[in-house]
Amino acid sequence: MSTATESKVRIQKEDFNVHDEIEVMKKPSRNIGGITTFLGTGRELNKGQNITELNFEHYPQMAEKKLADIRDKAIRDFGIIDMSIIHRIGYIDIGENIVLIIACGEHRQETFKACEWAIAELKRTTPIWKRETTSTGEVWVQATP
Amino acid sequence: MVTVKYFANLRQLAGKEEDRFDLEGEVTLEALTHMIGKTLPQIGEMVRQKKIMISINYDVMPLDTVVRDGDEIALLPPFSGGM
Predict the structure, then answer these.
(1) In this predicted complex, what is the ipTM?
(2) Choosing among A38, A47, A141, which should be mutated to test the B contact, i.e. which has the most B CBs within 10 A?
C-alpha cells in the first residue's frame, strides 16, 4: 500500500516510497516536463568511522515551518510548478532513506537548480539533528557540508 | 513565564528537555541566557562563543531581542539534517 500523501512537506518516522511520491507530484499538473529528485540515504562511513546507526531528531513545528518556507521560496524564485520535501526522523539504518526532495517544472533546468538549492537550504535552516553511532560511541553531528 | 527548550547535545548537557523562567521587567535573550548559564555554565559559554542559535516562537532571533511572557525559546545547536 502506498504511504504517499497529498501533504507536500512532511517529517515522519516511516519510510517513504520514492516512486509513489513522484506519482503524487505528477498527478495535479499536465504541464510537468521535468522532475528532479534528491534522495539522501544513510551511509556507512563518515570521517573514517564506521557508522552502525543514525538517529535524527527535530524541533517540531519549527522544522515543518522551515521546510514549508523552503518549498514556497523554491516555487517562487525558481519558477518550478511544485516541490515536495520529506525528512525522516528516529533511528535509520545504513542504506535506508533519510530525505527526499522532488522538484517538478516545465523544463529540467529550473528543477535541477531548485532541488540543489532546497537541500542546501534545508541543511542550513531546518532544526534537524543527526546522531551517529559508531564502535567508539555516539556523537551528535554538528554540521555537514 | 517563558519556556526554554533544549535539543540534541544541549538536551544531554542540560539533562532535561526544557526549563521555565518567570521574568520580571524587560529581559533580552542575552539576559535570559545569562540566567541559563548560572545553572548550565557549559551552555552559557556556548552561547557566548556563538555556537548556538536561539529561536523565539520558531524564528531565529538576535540576542538583543526582548523576550515576552508566553514565548517559546529554543537553544539550537548547529543543524545536521539531510544526508
Answers:
(1) 0.93
(2) A141
